[in-house]
Amino acid sequence: MSGSLPNVMNSMTQPINEASQPHHCAGETRSDLRQRLLRLRQSTPQVQRDEWDKKIAEQVLLWCKANTPTTLGLFAPIRSEPDLWQIYPHLHALGMRLSLPVVRDKRLQSAQPLEFLQWQPGEKMTRDAYNIPVPQDQRTCQPDVFLIPCVGFNAKAYRLGYGGGYYDRTLAAAPNAIALGVAYQLNFCEFCEEHYDRPMTQILTEQGRFLAQ
To answer: Which of 57, 167, 176, 186 has the fewest Cβ atoms within 10 Å of its own Cβ atom?
Structure first.
């Protein structure tokens, strides 16, 4: 697979700027915006997020069935991120090789991209340097498609993360990979990308799949 936009779209695909009005953040630092978006996400009732998670999961399944990636980089949700564990067994059943990211040593974050370990549902898990679940088996692999959680995203399909830069370095090391940002629509916002930021190929939310403006 290449990093170009997939040819197969469904009727829910639309430009990001037509999806909803973004949060304005005039005079707000990235750190302040990040904290505000996290509070907004975490204050959303669990029952609402559960419903949104189902819709995002449907978008992921549709995309994967249409584009049949060979190796898919997943994520273990933290801090009220969209929870897609429900569909990981279905992705495995479709014949994709699945993997999960691991941070070996957070003291090395200024230099290290994420490492991805092969995983399939039912295998034993352990914890990484951030106490996030990771495969106990240490078989590494290189995904050709990444599912990447977003704290926020803008109309150009740039992602706002937690500030560590892990995914930016990971994508810089894999320039031909496809990056599918995963977010709730309420985290659509305005911010200026920086030189090291990497745009997402698409953003998947509960309202559909959105392309850059």
So the answer is: 176
Asked if residue 183 lies in contact with residue 82, where contact means CB atoms within 8 angstroms, the answer is yes
pLDDT at 194: 87
28: left (phi over 0), alpha (psi -120 to 50) or beta: beta
Cα 163 from Cα 179, distance rounded (Å): 18
Contacts of 114 (CB under 8 A, 6+ apart): 101, 102, 103, 166, 167, 169, 170
Under 8 Å between Cβ of 52 and 45:
no
27 pLDDT above the threshold of 80: no
Q: What angle do CA 209, 210, 213 make, to 5 degrees?
A: 170
Residues facing residue 183 across a β-bridge: none
With respect to CATH, is domain 24-211 assigned 2.60.40.350? no
Tens digit of pLDDT for each residue in 88-147?
A: 999 999 999 999 999 876 665 556 789 999 999 989 999 887 888 999 888 999 999 999
Q: What are phi and psi of 148, to 5 degrees?
A: -125, 115
Give domain limits for the chain: 24-211
Q: What is the pLDDT of residues 41-84, one digit of tens each?
A: 999 999 999 999 999 999 999 999 999 999 999 999 999 999 99
Buried b (16+ CB within 10 A) or exposed e, 121-133: eeeeeeebeeebb
- Report CA 32 to chain centroid distance, whole Å: 21
